Amino acid sequence: MASQNAKAPYYYVPGPSKWPLLTGMSLLVTMAGASAWVNSIGWGPYATVAGILAVLSVLYCWFGDAIAESEGGMYSARIDNSYRWSMSWFIFSEVMFFAAFFGALFYARSVSMPWLSDLDHKILWPDFVAQWRTNAGPAGTIEPFTTMGPFWIPTINTALLLTSGVTLTISHHALREGKRGATAFWLAVTVLLGATFMGFQAYEYMHAYSDLNLKLTSGIYGSTFYMLTGFHGFHVTIGAIMLGVVLYRVLKGHFTPEHHFAFEGAAWYWHFVDVVWLGLYVVVYWL
């Protein structure tokens, strides 16, 4: 955005693009493959990987076009404002996405469990106890498992994400002061902290599967645990990729202290991911 013309009198509208159609098709393949994978259909993993690679390829080309347009001086202050509103609405949609899963967890804990343990259901569920974290299942259909506590990996990951929020803020201030070296350094530290978080979460999942026998099929606890933490891990991955691209653009000199919304948008997203994790850490691992 270094060449952005903030006083341009026009609103740049790009021509017809094939990228939205290709993105939709790639996402369709990805979701079809994922659905087949969880249902143990042989072609599921291959379709999922192919779809993810296709999505990444399309986004690489699509965002490459947007960067070229910005660096070519085609964007005005009106475009910058549109990007800010678009990113704001996107993050709001992500808030609603996680709110749905937090709502499912709340319903299971505060509505379903007391209902299944009341006097009317004692005949069907004589041994059921309305106590979270439950490992109860219908007539022994769920294998025994151990629930996940906050120590030590979730606590370490909390420290990693909180620290990454600080380093990202330092990087942003350095960019606003025109210190490209400091901006790149602290941004690289932020990406490294995010990658470390993902590594710890992968280890946590391996430990849960192999040592605790905690799986996606482990009743309502297992399904809500993996849906909430898994989707959050996915968002951390996306956020780290975004920050990695921004780091590359910082090194290329694309940003100025006045024009750097790509940095700001990625930072908004990363801080949103941090806040969601704090909610997960308290609700999923402690309560």
Could you give the topology of this structure?
Layout: H1 19-38, H2 44-71, H3 77-116, H4 153-176, H5 180-210, H6 219-252, H7 261-286
Helix pairs in contact: 1-2, 3-6, 3-7, 4-5, 4-7, 5-6, 6-7
Describe this structure in words.
Helix content is 71%, strand content 0%. It has 287 residues and is an all-alpha fold. The chain folds into two domains: 1-75, Helix Hairpins (Orthogonal Bundle), CATH 1.10.287; 84-286, Cytochrome c oxidase, subunit III, four-helix bundle (Four Helix Bundle (Hemerythrin (Met), subunit A)), CATH 1.20.120. Helix 3 runs parallel beside helix 7, helix 4 runs antiparallel to helix 7 and helix 5 (180-210) runs antiparallel to helix 6 (219-252). It is globular. Mean pLDDT is 88; it is low at 1-6.
